[in-house]
Amino acid sequence: MKEITTVTVIGAGDMGHGIAQAALLGGLTVHLYDTADESLQRGVGKINDSLEILHRKGKIQDEEMKRCKANLHPTLDFREAVTRSPFIFEAVPEILELKQRLYRDMEAIVSKDTIFASNTSNMRITEIAKNLQHKDRVVGAHFFNPVVLMKLVEVIRGDETSDETMQVAYDLCLKMKKTPVRVEKDSPSFIVNRVNAPVRVLLGGIVDKEIAKPEEIDALMKFNGEPMGHFELSDYVGLDVLYDSGQYRQQVLHADYAPYEKLAEKVKRGDLGKKTGKGFYDWADGRPTIDVNKRTDKLKMSDIDLVKLNEAAKLIEEGVATPADIDLAMISGTGDKVGPIEKHQGINVDDAIRRLELLAERLDKEVLQPANILTDKPEAVFVLEGQR
Ligand code: CAA
Q: What are the distances in angstroms from CA 296 to CA 209, 213, 365, 372?
């Protein structure tokens, strides 16, 4: 099994620069590539700013900071970027054709055992690798935003990914001081984004129907100890990213995942969240202040939690992940204090099913309907011991 000491990151945006930084902090040499000098410099600037924060807080010392800066090699030269390391992280926009073309271009010039890891947040790895000769070397390595703070990496096996590729990617994530979780079935949106997808359907539906406003929902979530409100986090991640993901899920999972109206309106106007200074909130002066006194009473926090549990149950039913891995992924990828399975140990399952049915009817969304496994075999959902 090869030991990786150098990696390439393709794309210096929010995720790419974060992956590059995590690799630097893991002691690796990093070639960071982007097509435009402005984007590349912005990415490098963000890495340096973040290293300064870590240094100021005493989380890294002078030596480590110097080493990280010396080990970063930004480049606009594609050939140089992809031929200088045995492991390539791809973090380009979520457009399938763009990714497929990039992988073909890379395969044409790298050695046959170079590993390609996609940071796609939703797309099946098998689709991305579809046109390649050596599909066994393609794996998913899905990081979470902000990469420097979020521990999780979903390591996803495509239909043809080899055991060795999975293991090299897993070990590399450990080296980058992350918490890798294996996703053995290549199912759209993997674990965390899949568990959160129907929450977006629920909350988007509530906002579209004007049952409650985004800031009232976020106030409810913050009041209940969530690190960010749903709409605040949406702005943080980028409304364009969520729009594209919604469209993809609409095509491959269910029509209910289509981007909700208020999200689509904002994207059409170019209000993409934090990155453009405006989304559901104004970010001109930094993170929005959310007044917990404005929390809605039209929805309960436990409704949101139940929707997560329900989707987690569907993932278990489909064999995508174990209950323990789902909990670990949700905790290390989103800052949840307790995973959806552990949170609902000992609940009245019949009551949960009834409440989910009511939510599905109220919002007219089939994806909120209870998972079959909750009725047929609930004991398979609530097992946590001995799973990891
Ligand atoms: N570099 C280094 N350190 C940083 C930093 C940076 N860029 N930004 C913030 N920090 C540090 C801060 O200095 C602070 O340090 P101290 O605790 O030592 O003071 C710490 O990180 C926490 O920051 P804040 O106090 O500003 O904010 P917070 O307490 O709310 O924590 C957060 C920030 C960890 C991001 C938290 O809000 C959180 O967990 N939010 C949820 C994030 C989430 O769910 N991410 C997943 C999104 S979905 C996704 O990514 C998938 C996809 O496919 C798109």
A: 14, 8, 21, 31
Q: Is the domain of 122 the same as that of 230?
A: no
> E-strand spans in the chain?
6-10, 29-33, 72-75, 87-90, 115-118, 138-143, 152-157, 179-183
213: Cα within 13 Å, side-chain hemisphere: 9
Of 118, 119, 121, 122, the catalytic one is 121
- Closest ligand 1 atom number to CA of residue 227: 37
Q: What is the dihedral of CA 235, 240, 241, 244, to 10 degrees?
A: 140
pLDDT of residue 386: 57
Residues 289 and 308 both lie in one domain = no
Atom index in ligand 1 nearest the CA of residue 122 equals 53
In the reported structure, the alpha carbon of residue 215 is separated from the centroid of ligand 1 by a whole-number distance in angstroms of 20
The set of residues, in sequence order, having a beta carbon less than 8 Å from that of 166 and lying 6+ positions away, is: 139, 155, 157, 182
- 21 in contact with ligand 1, CB cutoff 6 A: no
Distance CA 330, CA 173 (A): 17
Check whether residue 50 and residue 65 sit in a common domain.
Answer: yes
Note whether 303 and 220 are within 8 A (CB).
Answer: no
User: Residue 350 domain-assigned?
Assistant: yes
If you measure from the C-alpha of residue 240 to the centroid of ligand 1, how many angstroms do you get, rounded to a whole number? 20
CATH number of the domain residue 368 falls in? 1.10.1040.10
User: Ligand 1: distance of its center to the CA of 153 in Å?
Assistant: 16
Exposed e or buried b for every residue in 171-185, given b needs 16+ CB within 10 A?
bbbebbebebbebee
Q: Which of 92, 15, 79 is nearest to 47 (CA)?
A: 15
Q: According to the model, what pLDDT value does residue 325 have?
A: 96
Which residue ranges in the chain fall short of pLDDT 70? Answer: 1, 386-388
Query: Whose alpha carbon is nearest atom 25 of ligand 1?
Result: 227
Number of domains in the chain: 3
CATH number at residue 279: 1.10.1040.50
